[in-house]
Q: What sequence folds into this?
């Protein structure tokens, strides 16, 4: 299993990079791997292998796709973030030429991979057959409106899958089971510091018990089981933790309401209770997944 503790991340005390490319790299190099236990647990339960034709919605920089392809699955990833897609292309399609949208390539373990920009047609899996698994590994439930775009995306994706295909939704677990929730509350407090308080989509909010079930119902999916997975967030130091957390987008409303330097400072302060004697940061968390059937 991919380790969750990120080591040797540089930190010089300067503000974290704010441009899109640096933010995408922070996600890929620091934060994305924190969800590796969730990817593995879902793939074990769904028996992902050579017979799997997977469509990954919100595929990010491609770590979950890489794991599935290593198991022999044929994978197609869709995302609206071009910077993350470019990183996914580097991981999954080394040496491929051209834009990420049409690219597809065999994986050494036997699977095939394809990357699509959000909005591009994806009529079939990389081997030409309909999908039999749709995954959403970008967890919902920690930001207002974070599922609004997901419902129409699922409705568009379901007709591309075989009847009875599995759809896996993921979300944050209960706040009392997620140590990171204490740090994320900084985002809500800073967003509320604006006058008038900002309530736009993206503002942090506590996870609700039925977040995933609500999305499934609105997308016309039938729940067929669920699970919880421990995903501790481990960082080499406070600086790495700040960069990783800000790459999630959960602090964007706070940055807009104040400024990035203030957000970085207050997030760093909120992380101090989670520092260990060796300077690393460790926050136990629980994430949920919901298995649905089309």
A:
């Amino acid at each position: 299993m991919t380790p969750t503790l990120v080591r040797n991340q540089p930190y010089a005390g300067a503000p974290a990079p704010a441009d899109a490319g640096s933010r995408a790299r922070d996600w890929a190099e620091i934060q994305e791997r924190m969800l590796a236990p969730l990817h593995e647990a879902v793939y074990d339960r769904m028996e992902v292998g050579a017979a799997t034709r997977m469509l990954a919605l919100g595929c990010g920089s491609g770590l979950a796709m890489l794991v599935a392809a290593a198991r022999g699955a044929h994978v197609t990833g869709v995302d609206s973030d071009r910077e993350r897609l470019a990183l996914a292309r580097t991981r999954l399609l080394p040496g491929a030429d051209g834009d990420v949208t049409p690219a597809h390539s065999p994986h050494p373990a036997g699977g095939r991979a394809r990357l699509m920009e959000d909005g591009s047609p994806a009529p079939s899996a990389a081997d030409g057959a309909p999908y039999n698994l749709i995954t959403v590994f970008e967890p919902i439930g920690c930001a207002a409106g974070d599922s609004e775009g997901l419902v129409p995306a699922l409705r568009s994706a379901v007709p591309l899958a075989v009847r009875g295909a599995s759809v896996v939704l993921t979300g944050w677990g209960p706040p009392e089971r997620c140590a990171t929730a204490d740090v994320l509350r900084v985002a809500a407090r800073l967003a509320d510091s604006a006058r008038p308080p900002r309530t736009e989509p993206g503002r942090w909010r506590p996870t609700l018990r039925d977040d995933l079930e609500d999305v499934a119902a609105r997308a016309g999916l039938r729940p067929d089981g669920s699970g919880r997975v421990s995903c501790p967030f481990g960082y080499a130091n406070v600086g790495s933790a700040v960069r990783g957390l800000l790459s999630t987008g959960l602090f964007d409303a706070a940055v807009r309401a104040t400024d990035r330097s203030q957000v970085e400072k207050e997030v760093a302060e909120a992380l101090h209770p989670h520092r260990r004697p060796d300077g690393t940061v460790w926050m136990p968390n629980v994430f949920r997944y919901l298995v649905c059937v089309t």
Remarks:
- Residues 180-192 form the longest helix (13 residues).
- Confidence is low (pLDDT under 50) at residues 1-17, 97-103.
- The radius of gyration is 19 Å.
